[in-house]
Amino acid sequence: MRVKPAAPPRFSFSPQARRDSVGFLLLGLCLTASLLWLDSFDWFVRFAMTHEHWELDELATALCVMGGLGYVFAWRRITELRGEILRREQAEGEARHLASHDALTGLPNRRSLRAHFDALSSARRQSGFYLTILDLDGFKAINDLHGHAIGDALLLEVSRRLELCFGADFVCRLAGDEFAVIVSSVESEAAARSLIERAAAALQQPMQVEARALQVSATFGVAVWPADGQQLSLLLRRADLALYQGKNLSRSSVRFFSAELDQQIEARSRVEAAVREGLRHGRLSVHFQPIVELASGRIAGFEAMARLHDPELGSVAPESLIAAAERAGLIVQVAEQLLEQACRAAAAWPDELFLSFNLSPMQLRDRLLVERLLRVLERSGLAPTRLELEVTETAILLDADEAEQTFARLRALGMRVSVDDFGAGYSSLGRLQGFRFDKLKIDPAFTQAIGQPGRGEDILEGLLGLARGLNSDALAEGVETPAQAHWLMQRGCRYAQGYFFGEVLPEEAVLPMLREQTQAADVAWQREAS
């Protein structure tokens, strides 16, 4: 609903000005009556003739002329003052309008939204109403490609379509390409959804902007008053959460807020807070899972696994920990702290064992990554040749050229690079063949296909062949049975890890495990020798 600016105010005298005017008029009438009663004009004529040398008649004429001119001047000043007051009142009206409306589209703004919301919520309606936030999909690309003038014209067309679609309902612009609508013209959620979906379909239609056919869409998040909250701030937050979920799952959609969504967001917020506190108070730790060389059965190295134990949440899953650190912008600090712990532990292992550590996509885009790694290795005393860094193929292809340069620097320093969860991402084999990887870690989903009906084994065998074609060692993750280990060894897979070879161990359990393996190997050698 677009509110038109108020008409310019009509000029009117103030009560004080009216009282002053009446007073001066009465005073003038009284003076005139007194002069007439005293026959003052005749007296003045006689007096002027008696004293003609004083030139009183010319003086009176001059005074009359000056008085007339004074009246003219006063009238002009009153007219100018009247115009100035009108202009000032009009400017104040325009300022009030601009304070409550968007300058570009003329729609109400956030201040008007609050006033309209307060009016609706205080009316004690029998039925609820629907607060909707919508955000345009693809608007930034249009703005960048065609310029801000075209973007502004597009926003004008969007606002026009929203007004047509929602009719008497309240439509406002919050900021940028974000709009809000209060739907109060329908009685049920189904009717509200239908109305909003029609608006979404209308916005998807091409828009003619300065001889250009542009197309955008919009994602809608909806919160219901009073079911989802009775305060505007709470409803805005919940509608925004629904919008955020719609953006992540399916753009150009209509999402209603749900309590489950709120619980998910709250749980994620608690994990993020736990990560911050864990980073600050040293609650982050690493555990290790053995990586076995299939031909010999000996442990070749360990993969570091992130762990966090929070006093309130308990043990936080590694996936949740890393995802929360990335959302909070703490992944660089978290990874550096975990890597230093892992490197200090690995420095105490036998020299032939390597440490495998996962890099997140955000770390891979860090231009100071190599320098950070070198500082950690220097502080921990671990040789660069014993560190193997794991990256996912999807992360590599986000910026393949930058990743290629980073890998070249890492390899020049003696570190190794492996591809994690190979086969599970969106591979571009033509692009990946240009890289030099030390190891391809095959996703556990393919390992679980061993011995199962279907083409899973054929695909896994193809991945092993691909590793050989790229001149890289293959490592199969998720090995849980002797049959899986035997199948992999027969087909040339060099390394494997999984619960069949050993569970994830805390740092203090690694060295005892290695000693047990060494003692078992010595006993087996003595038996063979005897």
Automatic annotation (TrEMBL):
All residue ranges annotated as the GGDEF domain in the record: 127-259
Matching entries from InterPro entries are given as:
Biofilm_reg_signaling (IPR052155), EAL_dom (IPR001633), EAL_sf (IPR035919), GGDEF_dom (IPR000160), Nucleotide_cyclase (IPR029787), Rev_trsase/Diguanyl_cyclase (IPR043128)
Kindly give the PROSITE patterns that the UniProt entry links to this protein: EAL, GGDEF
Q: Where do transmembrane segments lie in this chain?
A: 21-39
Q: Which CDD domains match?
A: EAL, GGDEF
Keyword Transmembrane set for record: yes
Ranges of residues in domain EAL: 268-518
Keyword check for Membrane = yes
Name the UniProt key words of this record, in alphabetical order: Membrane, Transmembrane, Transmembrane helix
Q: What Pfam families does the record tag this protein with?
A: EAL, GGDEF
The record's SUPFAM superfamilies line, in alphabetical order, gives:
EAL domain-like, Nucleotide cyclase
* The protein's name: EAL domain-containing protein
Instruction: Give the species.
Output: Uliginosibacterium aquaticum
